Amino acid sequence: MSRLLFQRLKGNSRGCLAFEPCFLIPYSMVSTYASLYMFELGIAETSIGWITTIGLVVQVFSSFISGYLTDRMGRKSAILYFDLLSWSLATILWAVSQNVWFFLTAALINGFQRVPHTAFYCLIVEDTKPADRTYVFTLLQIISVIGGLFAPLGGLLVDYYGLVPGVRIMYVLAFLMMTFQFVGRHLTTRETEIGLRKMRETRELCLKESLIDYGGAIRDILLRKSLVLIFSVYILFNFQATMKTTYLSLYMADYLHVRSGLISLFPALSSVIMLLTLWLLMPKIPEHMANRSMMAGFILSVISNVMLVLWPTSNLVWIGLSTILAAVGLMISSPYLEAAVQNAIDDEKRAKMFSMLSVLILLLTSPAGIIGGWAYNLDPRIPVWLVSGAFAGSAILMLLHLRREKHIHSHKR
User: Fold this and answer.
1) In terms of Cα–Cα distance, which of 337, 310, 332 is closest to 321?
2) End-to-end CA distance of the chain
């Protein structure tokens, strides 16, 4: 099976994806319980929101310098050193956290994850043909889905040891597996040709000159309407992901009164449905229908979230149906969106433009934690409504994008 999936991959994309389960498996286990873990240790909902937002502010800074560091250090060195800092060290801090200051320190350190994030996309994309990039991101989504199948293991740990001890164990496992991934990936990949050239070019420029040059990347983005539309969709997609990751599990446990040990079943169900969607539905979607597939996925995501707020219930069948719709929606939208964003960026400007895109994303999503915490105190359903609104906005923007493309093609004829 793995040989069949990986046979089209060559070079860095193979090395990057081969070790990705070592990150996604522990991440899927622990992310389900991260907010509940903080809540159980006495961190208030508003404090959770502030910690999330402060972490995102650090990510804004690290995103701004990520392109420079990725070009200066090289893709491989940037991804190795900053992954060890932002994830290996952070998971150890989370594992021993006792109060808000531990979580705040971990959030500050984890905020530097945007440097390896930019380096990873450069490393996996630059030596991959544009025609193969959708396949690469689909496979990345598959690995993420398979990782989600292990989420119930987190539920077993929580049921057996209790919430706090169980989550501590998960963070220790995350440290071990993620560190293995970072070292293994470093040993099985090579610096890209563009990366080597950028290292030489960046050494000739001082930091100030390089950062001024990066300001031009924002201008390049704003001057291209197609980029503005696609990037706007990407920004909304990241906004809802931040809001959903932070508050959905808390909403299910605190408002819908779903037992903590059962919450991890829904990521597993989501993973199974996404795999079935990949097997049964995605092969039937032609490449020219990618944008329409994205829009359909966003609409399904709106429906899945609205279900949880219009009819709030602890009924597992109802929550399971919402989870199924969300899984199908994510599977038929996320890989196409990732590929569309990467294909819209010129290879020569990839590190600069992607780092600037990350800055824009984070500037606009940083308030998500505070907004979510404030909204949750008013009414726990509001954060879920905000997630629904972000997906609805994405669908509208995709419709505008499709109309623009149709208009451009009609004029070319």
Assistant:
1) 310
2) 44
pLDDT tens-digit series, residues 43-70: 887 888 888 888 888 988 898 888 888 8
The first and second tokens of residue 261, run together, are: 């040990």
159 three-state secondary structure: helix
The encoded tokens of residue 222 equal 């704003």
3-state secondary structure of 310: helix
Which alpha helices (H) appear in 162-264, and where do they start and end? 163-188, 193-203, 207-222, 225-254, 260-263
Residue 88 has a pLDDT of 96
Instruction: Specify whether the CB–CB gap between 194 and 348 falls below 8 A.
Output: yes
| Sequence-distant (≥ 6) Cβ neighbours of residue 130 within 8 angstroms | 343
User: To which residue do tokens 């050494």 refer?
Assistant: 203
> Comparing C-alpha atoms, which of 73, 87, 78, 103 is closest to residue 180?
87
Helical ranges in 74-192 per DSSP H:
75-83, 90-95, 100-110, 114-125, 130-148, 151-161, 163-188
DSSP category for residue 99: S
Q: Is the dihedral of CA 234, 237, 239, 245 positive or negative?
A: negative
pLDDT of residue 2 exceeding 60: no
- Give yes or no for a contact between 270 and 399, defined as CB atoms under 8 angstroms apart: no
Does the pLDDT of residue 365 top 80, yes or no?
A: no
Sole residue written with tokens 């990725």: 70
Phi, psi of 98 (to 5 degrees): -120, -30
Using alpha carbons, select from 30, 34, 19, 44 the residue that is nearest to residue 153.
30
Average pLDDT of the segment spanning 275-282: 82
